[in-house]
Amino acid sequence: xxxxxxxxxxLDFGSQYTQxxxxxxxxxxxxxxxxxxxxxxxxxxxxxxxxxxLSGGPASVTNVGRPEWSKMIMKxxxxxxxxxxxxxxxxxxxxxxxxxxxxxxxxxxxxxVQDESDLFRGLAGKSPFSVWMSHGDRIETLxxxxxxxxxxxxxxxxxxxxxxxxxxxxxxxxxxEVAHTTHGARILKNFVRHICGARPTWTMGSFLHDSIDQxxxxxxxxNVLCAxxxxxxxxxxxxxxxxxxxxxxTCVFIDNGVMRKQEAKQLKQVxxxxxxxxxxxxxxxxxxASGEFLxxxxxxxxxxxxxxxxxxxxxxxxxxEARNIGNVRYLVQGTLYPDVIESVSHKGPSATIKSHHNVGxxxxxxxxxxxxxxRELFKDEVRLLxxxxxxxxxxxxxxxFPGPGLAIRVLGAVTPARLDMLREADAVFIDExxxxxxxxxxWQAFAVLLPVRTVGVMGDQRTYEHVIGLRAVTSVDGMxxxxxxxxxxxxxxxxxxxxxxxxxxxxxxxxxxSKPPSTIEWE
Length: 523
Known about the structure:
It is a single chain. The protein has helices spanning 18-27, 41-46, 85-93, 184-195, 204-219, 232-245, 263-273, 290-297, 303-325, 337-343, 379-389, 393-396, 416-435, 488-501; strands at residues 7-12, 31-36, 49-54, 80-83, 97-113, 129-141, 147-151, 159-164, 167-172, 223-227, 249-255, 283-288, 328-332, 369-371, 444-458, 461-475, 481-483, 505-510. By secondary structure, it is of the alpha/beta class. It has a nine-stranded mixed beta sheet with strand order 2-1-3-4-9-8-7-5-6, sandwiched between helices. A five-stranded parallel beta sheet has the order 12-11-10-13-14, with helices on both faces. Strand 10, helix 6 and strand 11 form a beta-alpha-beta unit. Helix 6 (232-245) packs across helix 11 (379-389).
């Protein structure tokens, strides 16, 4: 069913950043929907799009078996924007020539704009500016009627357009959706708002209203269980669901044995003050299942296996609690879109990066039906939604914590002793970040226990002990991230505290890699 809002359709050709395109559109308060690249013309038309965007992707248009699309949409009189692979596919489909670039472009490049009349509207005097490239092909010959409107040192045709009557086609070789492209959001806004004429009616308030109606209609009179961890994602999902169905919801916190120091105690305090609205608090059950989780993990060292074990154990625990509650058919999870696109090929032919316990780690057969109201959102959007729901700031701004918990921050086998060591080191790091007012300046920060030992000297004695890695990043949405340049004096102080206060540790290192090429978590 088509949205009541003006809609931009994004066709997904497998880019890891496809949802970022949809997110940037929503930042302009315009509704967006992602469809697989293979979507039929009828499916696309059913959304009554004001414009269409062709995403990037890992394939080459010169290869056999490449992702294709319904070229008939080019006859619909709807503006179309191709990004990276999407631009190359458009060019080749309309008579241009695409070939291998002499030099691949990965990373930042300087964009020189040649036409500022529409797509680059409002950017007069700002050229050249930085854009994010990620391609090995480039357009060698423009399709008939097209003109180049921007270039970089390695891409003479870094942007192109054809405007003739109802035909309005645009292409960008770079990725405007990523934070590393200066003015990228403005470029997409120009396409969506000015070229497509889409009205800015989509907001977090409208998303909340629509989602509550959808949950209420989907659930009916059935009872619902919510997997509540105390993090912002599950808390917002619980608040939304409670707003929709009230007493039909029971929230369950499973202590899986791989939580941070005093997590359960802190979460109890959060839950006591938690309100899904100004009058009612949802019912919350707290279950200690740490023994069964740690037994299931055993001596497992492979991170993918760890994630899948955690996922299966969570479902077993929640299905058991559902039987105890009685007449429960649905399970609410705070799954976000980064979880989805890193775990499974969701909408298009994207590559799997890693399994998340609540996505790729789920068993094939489940007795509970999933409700994932945040599945198409990013972390910063969830925080906005939390404020819309009136949740406390300390919950809304809490750093992300992975569902598999410390099991994927203890690199190698997960044992009680190694978990205790990591808990203490992580607590020191987080406490100092908060004490020095640095916690709010980082998007995520944590410690990891490395699977190595190193020689040290303590009290004139040789030691052979463990290494703690510290990780802190800045980010907007978790899809890309830069390592946080924390003050050297701060890091020295934290390292000194950890080595002195955490038995078994004689070395601390700081991770200065960004995403990409690294992920934020180590496993």
